[in-house]
Amino acid sequence: MLNNLEKNRLPLIFDMMASRMKKFQSFTGLLLIIIMAIILSPRQHGTGRVLFLTPENISDIFRQVSENGIIAIGMTFIILTSGIDLSVGSVLALAATFCAKLLTQWDPSIGQPVHIFLAIFLPLVVTTSFGTLYGLVISKLKVQPFIVTLAGMIGLRGFARFLTNNANLDIGFGDDVSSVFADLVSPKPVVISTFIVIAVIMSVLLSRTVYGLRVKSIGDNLIGARYAGLPVTKVLLITYALSGFLTGIAGILHAAQNHQGSPNDGISYELDAIAAVVIGGTKMTGGKGSIIGTIIGVFIMGILTNTFRLKGVDINVEMMAKAVIIVIAVWLQMPRQHKSKG
């Protein structure tokens, strides 16, 4: 029989065990997905090699997850504050179309290096500014992040279409400045390296700085954070601005890799980013999560997509499977109640 002290300690012990298990939960999920991908992968004709494990396919997975990974990292900070950003797909489209528009309006007098710099810098200024505006409205006017970013999703998509007169802007063909831009930005090593550098920097920012601690504190208890004197407005401004900046980078990479800026790009990207963050273990209610977990979530989604494509699975089936995985991931994060019998 357990005495009263032992009975009272049981819930605490269960919680500690659950916390430790969650640290390995994402890694376990990724390992299982990799094993599944290897088993289901087609074999190469003649050699019998597993297509999933070929260097070309592995590098393709890294390249394919880079855009969503960069967006998901910014989304992690937002969700940690107990917020949400539904506009990242539209922000990506805006960055891609604005970048393409600047590249197609080439003025030889300013020189290619300056032109390419402006085609990268100015879209980042725009997307970061809109992110800052979100943070301002959310923190000062107390409008819910869902409503603010939903409005942004609609409005920025319209802005992107207005910029291009609802047309796609082709870049990277011929001998003009856009071709130089595409040659510089679109190669796999550049795209993958950008993702890795951002992931490392943002992981340090979240786990080793006062700002990262404040982000988690605000998400864990907003009212308590205000009473404790934390600069809530400043933190939210920085967080949404950071998301806009990172999504802008993803948009520029997207334009270079696809050789166009389209106002219809990025549709449903917000769902992929949120899914990666949730699968990676970040709580939708805020306060708990990590960049490492998000990266694992990104790769789980990316490997699933790659496996479905190698098998030739219908994209509609792929979407349904991802929906099930998201629900399971959220369910696994739900707190469990432990009861002890006397």
Describe the structure.
This protein has a single domain, classed as ABC transporter involved in vitamin B12 uptake, BtuC. Helix 2 packs across helix 12, helix 3 (88-104) crosses helix 10 and helix 6 (177-185) crosses helix 10. It has helices at residues 4-40, 55-80, 88-104, 112-140, 145-164, 177-185, 188-208, 210-220, 222-227, 232-258, 269-279, 291-311, 315-333; strands at 169-170, 260-261. The protein is mainly α and 342 residues long. The model is unreliable at 10-16 and 337-342 (pLDDT under 50).
In a few lines, what is going on in this structure?
The protein has 13 helices and two strands. Helices cover 74% and strands 1% of the residues.
* Residue share in β-strands: under 5%
Unreliable segments (pLDDT under 50, ≥5 consecutive)? Answer: 10-16, 337-342
Instruction: Evaluate the radius of gyration.
Output: 22 Å
Number of domains: 1
Straight-line distance between termini: 8 Å
Which characteristics define this entry?
342 residues; mainly alpha; ABC transporter involved in vitamin B12 uptake, BtuC; disordered C terminus
Task: Present the secondary structure layout.
Blueprint: H1 4-40, H2 55-80, H3 88-104, H4 112-140, H5 145-164, E1 169-170, H6 177-185, H7 188-208, H8 210-220, H9 222-227, H10 232-258, E2 260-261, H11 269-279, H12 291-311, H13 315-333
Antiparallel strand pairs: 1-2
Helix pairs in contact: 1-12, 2-7, 2-8, 2-10, 2-11, 2-12, 3-4, 3-5, 3-10, 4-5, 4-10, 6-10, 7-8, 8-10, 11-12
